[in-house]
Design brief:
Radius of gyration: 27 Å
Largest sheet: 3 strands, antiparallel
Number of helices: 13
Shape: extended
Strand order of the largest sheet: 1-5-2
Number of strands: 6
CATH architecture of the largest domain: Orthogonal Bundle
CATH superfamily of the largest domain: Winged helix-like DNA-binding domain superfamily/Winged helix DNA-binding domain
Distance between the termini: 50 Å
Mean pLDDT: 76
Strand content: 5-15%
Helix content: 40-55%
Order of helices and strands: HHHEHHEEEEHHHHHHHHE
């Protein structure tokens, strides 16, 4: 029967129903390790949920995992032990629910890729670019060709860092005091250009190398923007999602409970996340900001952030489900 037929139930399943995509290298690695089929079900369930969340972390109660995978609770527990032993899962218990001391919050599960699979990943074939981009090319019509323009200047190859640092030191030795100040300010602000004095000792080749070096620093992908001059304010928001992952929340809560106890941990946790979302720690990545805050709490230097609303709550992707302590 033709694949274009809409009366074939197989065509309906492929076109209209949900289905999962599993990376072949990871799936074959699971087969080689002899992972139990029940453990594979549990792993792929957390893989799909973590991929949907965008953080590769999921928060699913134990009974719901058993129901989704059609397994017993004891079988799911053994599957977690096997997967954790192979380095495929990492689970973090956030502790008891402060609103109900007889219950505990659902454990946060992070899916991981084993180190030996990462080492041999380059040996696995990649998908063809036409296969990956075919859907996008079919959906988007080809753009209208623009008038021909003059060819752009050739891009200079990037200088290796070890060799570049040696050249930078040689340039700094030849620079005057004003040129050295301008050179360091251009590197700090990623402006991409600087001016040279009339009495400069730099040769034309040296000046071209200095400008090329500054232009390379001005287009760093991690800066999250274009070149900046000395008058522009540094970007306060780091690249990537601002909200910490559920695994970071659980790790921070556990560390705070160890430092200040269970009574003061929730308020400190709220203050730290407000500082990450709106306060002074917003210029750092969430993981870096959490380490800074935990260090200040450990050293007794943490203070309540200014302008923090009294009723501010930590934004979560969804309300955490709870399960009985006896299950875990």
């Amino acid at each position: 029967m033709s694949f274009e037929s809409t009366h074939d139930v197989r065509v309906v399943l492929v076109r209209e129903k949900y289905f999962s995509l599993r990376p072949k290298p990871l799936e074959r690695w699971l087969w080689k390790q002899g992972v139990a089929p029940s453990a594979e079900r549990v792993f792929w369930l957390h893989w799909e949920e973590g991929q949907k969340a965008g953080t590769w972390c999921s928060e699913i109660p134990l009974r719901r995992v058993a129901a989704e995978c059609c397994l017993d609770v004891s079988t799911v527990t053994r599957a977690y032990q096997q997967l954790a032993g192979l380095g495929l899962l990492r689970r973090q218990d956030p502790g008891r629910d402060p609103r109900n001391p007889f219950h505990q919050a659902t454990a946060i599960t992070e899916v991981r890729v084993p180190r030996d699979l990462v080492c041999e990943l380059d040996r696995h074939p990649n998908r063809r670019r036409a296969a990956r981009d075919g859907i996008v090319k079919a959906a988007n019509p080809p753009p209208i060709p623009e008038p021909a323009e003059a060819p752009a200047a050739p891009i200079r190859p990037r200088i290796p860092w070890r060799e570049a640092l040696g050249r930078v030191r040689a340039w700094e030795e030849k620079m005057t005091a004003s040129e050295l100040t301008a050179f360091k300010e251009a590197q700090r602000t990623h402006s991409g250009a600087m001016t040279f004095g009339d009495d400069t000792a730099l040769t034309p080749e040296d000046r071209a190398g200095v400008l090329d070096w500054l232009s390379q620093l001005a287009v760093r992908p991690a800066c999250g923007g274009g070149p900046r001059d000395s008058t522009s304010r540094p970007t306060q928001v780091a690249s990537g999602p601002r909200s910490p992952s559920l695994f970071d929340i659980a790790r921070s809560k556990r560390e705070l409970e160890r430092l200040v106890g269970t009574a003061g941990a929730p308020e400190l946790l709220r203050q730290i996340f407000w500082a990450i979302e709106k306060g002074a720690l917003s210029r750092f990545t969430p993981a870096h900001a959490i380490n800074i805050a935990i260090k200040k709490v450990r050293e007794g230097q943490w203070t309540r952030p200014h302008r923090m609303p009294p009723n501010w709550v930590i934004p979560l992707r969804g309300e955490a489900l709870h399960e009985q302590c006896r299950i875990a």
